[in-house]
Amino acid sequence: xxxxxxxxxxxxxxxxxxxxxxxxxxxxxxxxxxxxxxxxxxxxxxxxxxxxxxxxxxxxxxxxxxxxxxxxxxxxxxxxxxxxxxxxxxxxxxxxxx
Length: 98
Description:
- The protein has 98 residues and is an all-alpha fold.
- Helices cover 82% and strands 0% of the residues.
- It has four helices and no strands.
- It has helices at 2-32, 34-46, 59-79, 83-97.
- The longest helix is centred in the first third of the chain and has 31 residues, at 2-32.
- It starts with a helix and ends with a helix.
């Protein structure tokens, strides 16, 4: 019985890992297109990744802004980019429009 439970756990872990890899691949494909890169640049600004989330005297707004920031951090971790890369992509895109 224990061996069967261990095997089931191994299979479940493999399935979770595969699902995470597929999700990561989906995020990378989504945000590697021109429209995806524009959306990522927007989300980077909107989710306050480049500025403080702290609002003096207002813990509710601070928590709200930190929640928004957590979303962009998760996306950035899935597509393996950092702040500098998003900023550079945005700058490069703006230069090509001129």
